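Priority: medium. Attachment 1 of 2:
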């Protein structure tokens, strides 16, 4: 698998060359620095042994969505450190991993995609294949009965994926799998070995989706509603009004919105309005009362209280600082 194509098939209006500002390579590591017109941040790829890739992401998107299209037959592990990652592993069924969550999946088709709905993401991916994983296990443990089948079989029982939410052992492994010391590669190999052994343990507690996944059609509709509402933030709209206007069940909307963005609709919109107001306080000479109305508040008093709750100070003090 050519790892340089890891994001090359993303659905952009720009070419791959436009998205990458600079590439630095050494014997075992490739660093992609993005063009800040599209993405602020970087991706670092490490090949710890043949066909075993550790990929570290730390970026902020300046476009609405980012869909790296993966190859069929890949075993992929994702650990979210910050932000939120959307995974499509269930034949148009979408689920999400939040900070501290770990997911491992078998990519059964080339249509598997990732998306980062909060616009920022920091996390680690590990990709390999069944063949390369078997070679890794033989190199590590010699004449061992441990094979990739033990992991794949366990994943198949759970629908070709497993999710572990806030597992401390996983968090310790993934938090130390990448280092910058002289023996980073050796440490990464040891940590990856620990991870595989932990995942195939028959006693591991694997999280079930428990209904928290949605059809892509519903996901797309909720995202469009969110875009519409945030673009017209001066017109405050309730969930009941959303249900009537967009012809969507209010309970479905509320549950789906929280899964996508990690917060309730009301909490998300409240924070969005205040942060937009903060930008206006810094970059315009509009009065506090005028800004309050521009972000959908009927009076300055309610606006000031909400602003203080989120920003920790009054609008006036924020502007002076």
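Attachment 2 of 2:
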């Amino acid at each position: 698998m050519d790892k340089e194509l890891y994001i090359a098939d993303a659905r952009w209006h720009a070419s791959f060359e436009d998205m990458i500002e600079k590439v630095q390579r050494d014997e075992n590591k490739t660093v992609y620095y993005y063009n800040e017109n599209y993405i602020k941040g970087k991706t670092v790829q490490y090949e710890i042994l043949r066909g075993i890739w550790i990929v570290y992401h730390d970026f902020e998107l300046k476009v609405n969505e980012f869909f790296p299209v993966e190859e069929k037959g890949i075993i992929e592990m994702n650990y979210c450190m910050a932000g939120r990652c959307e995974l499509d592993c269930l034949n148009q069924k979408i689920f999400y991993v939040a900070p501290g969550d770990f997911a491992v999946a078998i990519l059964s088709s080339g249509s598997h995609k990732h998306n980062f709905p909060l616009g920022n993401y920091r996390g680690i991916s590990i990709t390999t294949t069944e063949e390369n994983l078997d070679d890794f296990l033989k190199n590590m443990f010699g004449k061992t009965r441990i094979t990739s089948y033990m992991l794949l079989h366990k994943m198949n029982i759970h629908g070709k994926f497993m999710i572990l939410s806030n597992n401390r052992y996983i968090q310790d492994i993934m938090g130390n799998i990448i280092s910058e010391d002289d023996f980073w590669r050796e440490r990464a190999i040891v940590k990856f070995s620990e991870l595989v052994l932990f995942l195939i343990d028959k006693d591991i507690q694997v999280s079930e989706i428990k209904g928290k996944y949605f059809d892509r059609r519903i996901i797309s509709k909720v995202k469009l509603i969110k875009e519409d509402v945030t673009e017209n933030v001066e017109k405050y709209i309730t969930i009941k009004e959303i249900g009537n206007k967009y012809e969507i069940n209010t309970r479905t909307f509320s549950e789906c919105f929280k899964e996508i963005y990690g917060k309730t609709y009301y909490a998300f919109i409240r924070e969005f309005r205040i942060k937009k107001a903060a930008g206006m306080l810094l970059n315009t000479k509009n009065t506090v009362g005028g800004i309050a109305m521009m972000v959908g508040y009927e009076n300055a008093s309610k606006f000031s209280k909400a602003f203080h709750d989120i920003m920790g100070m009054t609008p006036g003090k924020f502007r002076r600082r």
